[in-house]
């Protein structure tokens, strides 16, 4: 398990013993908002409000210099091939190369901050949930929105795409979990 903390650190923990296996990974200047393992588990990405860090899971060393200028980065996800990171930064979705940190794409997605982002197992779809009370579905290649926004009863804090790529789940400030057919 990887965890991020308001003390600006990231740690990797054993699920069987609860002991710290690696870390603390130190380098964030603000509290860590989100962490995610790469598909193979060899790296961990973390974001605070202004930077994305990509770490070696075992040594706690940075794999590349921090990706700076990612204002309001609250959520990120690895692409299934592990070559890119998709991040919600403010109301924008941004795609970065894992090997260089270079921004590969950016598009305006929501009118308020994106709090959660997910990608389908097959890499074809991205979904985003925002403080603007909507969930949106995107084509991962063209970056075009698919269908109308899905209206939630309040700010959306979490989204996921089912492993069979049939459903989107969302949860938010209205205390309701919604299941949407893809």
UniProtKB/TrEMBL annotation:
The keyword Repeat applies. InterPro entries: WD40/YVTN_repeat-like_dom_sf, WD40_PAC1, WD40_repeat_dom_sf, WD40_rpt. SUPFAM superfamilies: WD40 repeat-like. Coiled coil: none annotated. GO terms for cellular component: transferase complex. WD repeats lie at residues 1-23, 107-139, 149-182. Pfam families: WD40. It comes from the Eukaryota. The keyword Repeat applies. Keywords: Repeat, WD repeat. PANTHER family: WD REPEAT DOMAIN 5B, WD40 REPEAT PROTEIN. This is WD40 repeat-like protein. It comes from Hydnomerulius pinastri MD-312.
């Amino acid at each position: 398990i990887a965890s991020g903390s308001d003390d600006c650190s990231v740690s990797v923990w054993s699920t069987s013993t609860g002991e710290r296996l690696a870390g603390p990974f130190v380098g964030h200047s603000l509290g860590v908002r989100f962490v995610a393992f790469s598909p193979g588990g060899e790296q961990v990405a973390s974001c605070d409000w202004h930077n994305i860090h990509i770490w070696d899971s075992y040594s706690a060393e940075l794999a590349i210099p921090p990706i700076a200028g990612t204002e309001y980065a609250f959520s990120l996800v690895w692409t299934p091939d592990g070559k890119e990171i998709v991040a919600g930064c403010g109301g924008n979705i941004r795609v970065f190369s894992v090997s260089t940190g270079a921004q590969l794409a950016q598009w305006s997605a929501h009118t308020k901050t994106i709090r959660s982002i997910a990608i389908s197992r097959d890499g074809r779809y991205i979904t985003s949930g925002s403080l603007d009370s909507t969930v949106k579905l995107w084509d991962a290649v063209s970056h075009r929105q698919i269908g109308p926004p899905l209206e939630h009863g309040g700010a959306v804090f979490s989204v996921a795409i089912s492993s069979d790529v049939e459903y989107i789940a969302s949860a938010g400030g209205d205390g309701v979990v919604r299941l949407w057919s893809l």
